[in-house]
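Cross-posted from the bioinformatics board.
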Amino acid sequence: MTVFSIEIVPKDPLWKIDLLTYIIEEIGFSGVWLSEHPHNRSSFITASSLLKKTNKLWTGVGVVNPYTINPFVIAQLAASLTEIAPNRIKIAIGAGDKTTLENIGIERVKPLEKIREAVTIIRQLLTKKKIIIDRIHGRLDFNPKSSVPIYIGAQGPKMLQLSGEIGDGVLVNYSNPEDLEWAYNEVRKGIEKAGRSIESIDIAAYLTISLDLDPEKAVKTAVPYAAYILCGLPEKIMERMDVSEEKLIKVKEAVQKADWLRLYEIMDVDIVKKLVIVGKPVILEEKLREIIEIGYSQIVLGAPTGPRILQTLREIKKIIKEF
Amino acid sequence: MDVTRFMEAVKELAIEEKYSLMEELLDVLLSSVNLEMVPDDLGWRINQAYRDGKLIEDEFLKELAYAVSIAEPAKFRRIIERLKVERLR
């Protein structure tokens, strides 16, 4: 059975995130993913607040970046959250965006090794309370109150394969069924390499959606998100996008300057539609059928969701009842 | 001033209309990108009133309207204009 969760970006005041989470739990979602970005509120601290006030909803923190937060500290934070809400915590780690890291003075070197090492450290600390590998050794002096599944946020082929090899779950950050099918098969390669079963890992499609009864408004809301995704696409997917080098440079410049008006001028609707599930709510139902058919076990409905958040959530509620 | 005009218009509404207006205002507020402008204590009062099922009450509806008038003044004025037109019908 497919699990449905939703992304909340902790860029808004806590009173809003708290209320939105209450409504999301009322609607019947299984969980929320709190995205982590150095520019926004801390997802771990936001999670500690939300978990105290929810009853059934699990909270995923991620994608947390081991370049910005030491894996030892990630394990410490995750273990602390289990005390608030045992069995309702998930974490996702990922190597993040090269440009964002460089902007805050961090060099993104050997991302595959970094993620493999981070998963090892976090998992050992959470299960055995101690870690001794190479130069790293240490321990937690308290007991985590439950296990914490470790997901990997992945886009490129090697990271997708690594996720299949060592992750408890994977967050696949595409929205187009064609891209998602390719990514799913990459994850499977890793699963097969490790001799695991497909059921041993939660493969989540982390969709970027923008829905509204007025499709033009939905597209407008989606444009900055589509532009951001476009700038970070791996080569394999970029080949299918049919975007000129000249256009890509213009988009990157506008994203860098956060010049949304410029983006509205230069981003074609066709590109937006390839990267985001965008339009009237009914389009989500069509896409979900294709994505679930591929084999994804979790659907994360990611930001921006739509220009009118409550209206969109009510529409989504009707759609996910069908699955 | 706008909030006072809004509350006067609300008095004329049937309970179903009032409920739908409350949902619309909450949607505008939660969809706003200007929430840093709304005082936190006001935001938390709205949050609690929704959880308690009291956001429809005049005291809290007024607070919700005030928050929307801060975060989305143009949208709030359009809602008031629409209410005025509906009252004239």
